[in-house]
Write a structure and sequence with these properties.
This protein has about 140 residues and is of the alpha+beta class. The chain is about 15% helix and about 25% strand. It contains three helices and nine strands. The strands form three sheets. A four-stranded antiparallel β-sheet has the order 1-2-3-9, with no helix packed on it. Strand 2 and strand 3 form a beta hairpin. The longest helix has 13 residues.
């Protein structure tokens, strides 16, 4: 049972953030912050592959978040600035000045995928090859 003093998000001090409610570990920075560019879905997938090859933060099991996982980060009670200096509604344990979206692993028909928007708290479908202003937040399961 959680106490009121238990924090849901914990900055691990190693470039990761633990979500104690969902037993997930998130990379503290997103792909835009790490690569200094926005990505289509294929680029985001390749970014995750490179994280695993390089054992980013000591782990080789990073993946794209599901839509539910991406949505679970949204919290109107907390915010940090994104790359455009607008508020995105995620915990301050995450690094500021990243992208305002994340690609997900939730693929849909016709080459589309759900993208979650942390500025607005909802998802949209985007084409995998779309030239957009999107990023990805890498996640892994805590075993």
């Amino acid at each position: 049972m959680k106490t009121s003093e238990t924090k849901r998000f914990v900055d691990n001090g190693d470039g990761t953030v633990t979500d104690t409610e969902h037993n997930l570990m998130w990379k503290q920075t997103d792909a835009f912050q790490d690569e200094n560019k926005f990505m289509n879905w294929y680029d985001a997938r390749d970014y995750i592959v490179q994280l695993n090859i390089n054992k980013a933060q000591g782990y080789a099991d990073w993946r794209l978040p599901t839509l539910a996982e991406a949505e679970s980060l949204f919290d109107e009670n907390h915010h940090i600035p994104d790359v455009d200096r607008f508020d995105i509604f995620i915990d301050p344990c995450f690094a500021p000045r990243g992208g305002f979206t994340t690609w997900t692993s939730d693929e849909m028909p016709f080459g589309t995928v759900h993208v979650f928007y942390y500025r607005y708290g909802h998802s949209n479908l985007s084409h995998k090859e779309g030239i957009t202003k999107d990023s990805v937040r890498a996640v892994r399961d805590i075993k």
